[in-house]
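Ligand-bound model needed. magnesium ion.
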Amino acid sequence: MATLEIHDLHVSVETENGPREILRGVDLTVKQGETHAIMGPNGSGKSTLAYSLAGHPKYTVTSGTVTLDGEDVLAMTVDERARAGVFLAMQYPVEVPGVSVSNFLRTSATAIRGEAPKLRTWVKEVKGAMERLSIDPAFAERNVNEGFSGGEKKRHEILQLELLKPRIAILDETDSGLDVDALRVVSEGVNRVAESGEVGTLLITHYTRILRYIKPDHVHVFANGRIAESGGPELADKLENEGYEAYVKGGATA
Ligand code: ADP
Ligand code: MG
Ligand code: MG
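Prediction:
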């Protein structure tokens, strides 16, 4: 069972006024087959956590450790992280001019598996995954992220998740504008990979509504750059009713 372990992670971001500490001691363990939801108010550092795990150059780890089965993730390049089985949905948020979805997926799969997937089986795999996600076949020939709507970006994300079969998936639901349709696609995809038992998922979200479709095993409240409280699905219900007020700066548990 693959295990991602984050221990006492401190991360700073470079600003005009010098470095600013955003993550202040994150502790979290995600095992293959588990679904964790990280929820918290805007600006609490949720995306910073995702970017840090992705190895984004703007974020500097000042102390703490991140390991995957004991291997130092922080010492790995972005590509090495992907090969080790850590999937970060926002790893390629940008447009990739002239690269079709279909080519992009095959190149990614080749990099991760260490050999090019056999064309015949690969075409079948892609077709099946696209059908499950109700994606129009023409989508495969479009250029990555070029003119993608929020919903199409999410579908592409989940398509990657299903085809690349990572051991640990980190999904940052940065797009608060997800419509119900996109929400359903994301949820079904996440539930499908969760049911496979092969993927550990870290679902980062501000809104509780996605948790009507996805039942996480663990819910963590993120506030002021660290996990303020952890619990089961009932914690999401509490957040839906009471909001994050108790956790923000000056609040009882902040
Ligand atoms: P969340 O995803 O929980 O809304 P973020 O991780 O995006 O929070 O941001 C946490 C804090 O760090 C915010 O105050 C934000 O302004 C700041 N921050 C994040 N990234 C940068 C950056 N690249 N430059 C300056 N400040 C940043
Ligand atoms: Mg730990
Ligand atoms: Mg965010």
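Helices lie at 46-54, 78-84, 101-113, 119-132, 150-164, 180-196, 233-242.
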